[in-house]
Amino acid sequence: MMISRYAYTGQLLFTAIKLDLLLEVLTLANQYGFNALQNSIADYLKSILDTKNLCTVFNISQLFSLRDLAEYCLVYADRYADEILKEPTFLLLPVHAVKQLIKRDTFCAPEVNIFETIREWGEAHKDTAGVMHQLLPEIRLPLISQKDLLSIVRPSGLISSDVLLDTIDFKSKSKSTEFIHRGFQSPDINIATSQLGAVVISGETAPGQGLNLLSAESSSNENIPRTQIGDPEGIVVQLGNPYLINKIILILYERDNRNMAYSIEASIDKVDWAKVIDHSKYMCRRRQVLLFKPRAVRYIRVLGHANTAQSRYFHLSHLEAMYSTEKFQHDSDTTLQIPTCNVATKTYDAQVVDGVSRIRDALINGQTSGYDWDNGYTCHQLGNGSIVVQLNQPYLISSMRILLWDLDDRFYSYYIEVSNDGVNYSMIVDRRRYRCRSWQLLQFDPVPILFIRITGTHNSSNEVLQGVV
């Protein structure tokens, strides 16, 4: 009746139709190829989705290969996993749908609750042979307490005694950072905010200041927390829930030009910690955008290792944490980001710390044209000093481009050194025996870089090395 009404009028009022009847209409729309109607119903189902109807809607999305609706259901289920496990309709799901839900790192519910629901599901489907073996491997036994392993999992008979003993042995010998935890996921949203329950639970302040690390205004250096250099307690932020994150943004002390070395550790239980960022040997400044392999985190600890201000304190103005959907490259050994764009720019908080120019930071302003005999370049006297650029944070870099001043036919010779602290340098490019001009495309083995020092050794026209970008 309703499908024929749509065939004649092209209209159907979904709000006047009960869910079970609407799903019948969706079945007919799929059967007769009414794609526009099928997509409209799928969009409407998103708008009325709740914990009570999710399993029904998810099942139908799987049945008709409605991928967008299915993904929407999965993301919704992640947010309300524990409630959905309690719904009777969960027990009606087919095995492939159940597996798709519980295998997700973001299906965030207590593992013992997931196990108990899977046990109930198995009892409801006991006439279907060989289905439980598809689901039991998705249960993360190390996340279940030893008490529950013995009092709940063992009596069920679903897990062999050998597997249980191996799990208990593994838990006793391992740190919690070695387990694959579950966590909530809020893509590209800062979850380290007081609105989402985050609090600073460790870190001291100067007299009259409060812990204001998580507010939007804290980057102004007002009310900023601090920790003593070398203090193992550091500054600790407790998130409102366990979250899956892969990105942390820090704003370091900005009241002066000090540089600071630090590291970041993450924990799910505040007992065992995993180092996700190690900048303990790099003197960093201002805004730090830090990317790493996704992991479930409840606690974030920032440790201060050194600064250039002769102060015994490490100050932190602001912290954000999130799951980033941007694609990035990261080196797990050094914990350094591998950039895919030019990071020696003002946009990335780089600065020229040595070199002469009529326009401040001309070397890193990105302008590759409009320079002349007097403006638009940075230089240094041959035999006296160098041009030095400091990046805001260390990167693992394997290439550079340099534009040497080229408004006549002059050529240069030079070499490039890099450093982690601005004191100890190592050479990565040697062009002292070459006649170089205009654009220089330089490639070398990947190396951690925070400071870049360019030293000219020859100019065929005068005694100055001139770099445009």
From TrEMBL:
Q: State the UniProt keywords alphabetically.
A: Signal
Question: Is the keyword Transport assigned to this protein?
Answer: no
- Where the record annotates domain BACK, the positions are 54-154
Is the keyword Membrane in the record? no
A Pfam family (short name) is: BACK
Q: Output a single Gene Ontology CC term carried by this record.
A: cytoplasm
> What is the residue range of the signal peptide feature?
1-29
Name any Gene Ontology BP term: modulation of chemical synaptic transmission
**Record-given protein name:** BACK domain-containing protein
What is the source species?
Diploscapter pachys
